[in-house]
Amino acid sequence: MSSVIEMIEGLGRSVLSALARLGLAGRFFLAIMMVIGVPLRRFSLLVRELYFSGVRSILIIVVSGMFVGMVLAIQGYEVLQRFGSSETLGVLVALSLVRELGPVVTALLFAGRAGSAVTAEIGLMQATDQIAAMDMMAVNPIARIISPRFLASVVSMPLLACMFSAAGVFGAYLVGVKLIGIDDGSFWSQMQAGVDFRLDIVNGLIKSLVFGVAVGLIAVFEGYYAPPTAEGVSSATTRTVVTSSLAVLMLDFVLTVWMFRGLNG
Amino acid sequence: MKKSKFDLAVGLFVAAGLLALVFLAMKVGNLTGLETSEGYRLEARFDNIGGLKVRAPVKSSGVAVGRVDSITLDSQTYEAKAILRIDQNYKFSKDTIASILTSGLLGEQYVSLEAGGDSVYLGQGDRIAKTQPAMIMEKLISQFLFNKASETTGTSK
Amino acid sequence: MPDVKPAQTHPDALIEIKDVHFAYDERPILRGLSLNVRKGEVLAVMGGSGSGKTTLLGLIGGRILPNKGKIMVDGQNVPKLDRSALYALRTRFGMLFQFGALFTDLSVYDNVAFPYREQTNLPESVIRDLVLLKLQAVGLRGAAGLMPSQLSGGMARRVALARAVALDPMLMLYDEPFTGLDPISTGIVGRLIRRLNDAFGLTSLVVTHDLDASLKIADRVIVLAEGKVYRDLTPEDVRTTSDAFVRQFADGLPDGPVPFHYPAPPLVDQLLGKSSAGEIAP
To answer: Minimal Cα distance from A126: which residue of C?
Structure first.
């Protein structure tokens, strides 16, 4: 009996602490937004973070995009040719990429590649008193360290998602047209007929922008509030990847329902 | 000095991202094609184009020879006016028949050109006189049912 | 416990701390601490681990807020300042963190240039001269191009010192400046603290538990215990006093007023299973 009560108490405690952490993250987000102008005025701060977050992620994003596109082409062809409509492969691949896989997989890879690095970097700066030292030098660390990294994530994400989707379409083109031998024209024409700029591409961009905010915030938040020990920083890095991935997948569901609810009746 | 390295790489990064977006918008999406048109254009009027789409292939004997450039409705005659862009290498006689066919049962629709025997060839802006509209499944079925019905009334007489 | 005179308001006091209480997660650290720091002196703050030495620096710097009490620095009550006033005050502080806290992504030169670039509009050529002068003062002008990861602990501490005094502060705060240094580096850093203090007319607060090093440079030594100033002595007093607590601290005795054992029930009772508290199952 008492063990049941203990369990419920434990549940309550963890819900409360999760809520408290969410509130802390919200306040942190507001604090970032207050000084988000700083990296825009001092552009070199943003450029540096764009380099480490964005440029350094290009390779993994483009290569992954290619492979995802190629696999989609093989699997899609296998199913579509049963119905004799293998020319629609282009639409299938493009819609999958632009609407879903582009933004989502990019966000997941970005969380693992750049988000974890940002958390580790900020966590180490916290552990070695660099952030405290900056604060004592009357330089706001949120403006100088946190907001450029956050903004770089928001800016990089849609650009990387576009690269992912483009690379995926190209990969599907290689496999579908060059390897399997689907008609070149059908591939593109079906694609262009089936993919709408505003509905599909712009919505995909909005998704990746939202993911950029989520992953960026989680990465800087986990780093800033990481316990100042080696163990604390490493577990914060893991938490960034796990929390970001869950947040991206959940947000994706919400956004998909909101964006495409009227589409299929 | 170190900063310029960042600047260049980040500039290239942003440019590549925007380029990918342009590629998605133009080549994957339907935000007006980038391709400059080569070849010559023919006009074909159909009573009904069915599910024919812009950029669908134009084939002759199964070989792709061009694309559908645009599809509009002539507001006077209520005919669908399709502009076909044909590869320069292929020439078609004046009495060519254009018909809209479907590849496979559920596949996409395309324009098929059947060349005739006329010695005069079609040129830029010419109109294909003989056309065959797309077959609409509902019409076919109702036609079939109608015929069956008239057959049965005929025999019962 | 002998009484320490309550801090009086001195006209020459740069820092006046009055009756400050601070608790960390319900655990009281400071319990009515009062302290004056006079202009121009080097004050060594000593005490065991957890006696609130580092907390004291955080309070003076405005990084943590007291539960109660006044912390006047140059006539301003630090806990009551808003962010911009606090930042304005902090530009006149220099702080040396335990391990230097150099920015790992910046070179030695850029680390020292950081305060100038952030807080002044000086042209880069002037900054260059100033940075080289500060590095010269700590003897590391030749290391300007190195990254912090290439420095030894003592060198990193000296670079951080150059950075801390970049804007000619009125007050220097040192958090354990001698931790992890070899005797030579300890001597160098200690002499630099004294020399910078006298040359630039600073006031220095050195939090440390390295008694030898601080006795060589300090004008005054205070010992924190039980959340208060427990002793206020000159370096000579420390060497000669017979006070048990100071003696234990100075001579590094394992047992004394600071007990060796964490509070526990009598050993015999616990071994025989008589004690109820802190029971550990066999």
So the answer is: C101
| A221 and A146 Cβ atoms separated by less than 8 Å | no
Q: Give the burial string for C237-262 (b: 16+ CB within 10 Å, else e).
A: ebeeeebebbebbbeeeeeeeeeeee
Tell me the backbone φ, ψ of residue C70, rounded to 5 degrees: -115, 140
CB contact under 8 A, A163 and B17: yes
Which of these ranges, A78-82, B35-39, C253-257, has the smallest mean pLDDT? B35-39
pLDDT at C257 over 80: no
Predicted local distance difference test score (pLDDT) of residue A72 = 94
Q: Can you state the percent helix, strand and coil of chain B, rounding each to 5?
A: 30, 30, 40
- Provide the pLDDT for residue B34: 38
**Interface residue B146 vs chain A (CB under 8 A):** no
Question: With 60 as the cut, is the pLDDT of residue B77 above it?
Answer: yes
Which amino acid belongs to residue A14?
S
DSSP B81: E
Element (H, E) at C240: helix C235-240
Range A6-13 average pLDDT: 92
- A52 or C46, which is more confident? A52
Which string of DSSP letters, residue by residue, matches C24-41?
A: ETTEEEEEEEEEEEETT-
Q: Is the pLDDT reported for residue C56 higher than 80?
A: yes
- Distance of residue C95 Cα from the nearest chain A Cα, in angstroms: 7
Residue A263 tokens, joined: 């589409």
Which of C63, C86, C58 is CA-nearest to residue C74?
C86
Q: Which residues of B touch A83 (CB under 8 A)?
A: 104-106
pLDDT at B36 over 50: no
Q: Return the percentage of chain A with pLDDT > 90, whole number.
A: 77
For residue A262, give every residue at least 6 positions away whose Cβ sits within 8 Å of its Cβ, in sequence order, or none: none
Q: With beta carbons under 8 A apart, name residues in chain C contacting A140.
A: 87
Chain B environment of A169 (Cβ under 8 Å): 23-24, 27-28
**Between C52 and A146, whose confidence is greater?**
A146
Q: How many H helices and E strands in chain A?
A: 13, 0
Which of C61, C99, C118 is closest, CB to CB, to A128? C99
Domain assignment present for residue C12? The answer is: no
Tens digits of residue pLDDT in C107-134: 999 999 999 998 889 999 999 999 999 9
Residues ≥6 apart with Cβ < 8 Å to A231: none
Residue C4 within a domain: no
Amino acid at B89: N
Radius of gyration of chain B (CA): 23
CATH assignment of the domain containing C120: 3.40.50.300
Q: How many CA atoms lie within 13 A of C133 on its CB side?
A: 10
C15 lies in some domain:
no
Q: What part of A 80-139 touches B (C-beta under 8 Å)?
A: 83-85, 87-88, 94, 98
| Whole-angstrom distance, CA of residue B123 vs CA of residue B130 | 16
Which residues are CB-contacts of A115 (< 8 A; sequence separation ≥ 6)?
A: A153, A215, A216, A218, A219, A240, A241, A244
User: How many Cα neighbours within 13 Å face the side chain of A125?
Assistant: 26
* Helices first, then strands: H and E counts in chain B: 2, 8
Residue A160 one-letter amino acid: L
Q: What percent of chain C has pLDDT over 90?
A: 22
- Structural domain that includes position C237: 40-63+91-260
| pLDDT above 70: percentage of residues in chain A | 98
What tens digit of pLDDT does each residue of C148-177 get? 999 988 889 999 999 998 888 999 999 988
Q: How many domains does chain C have?
A: 1
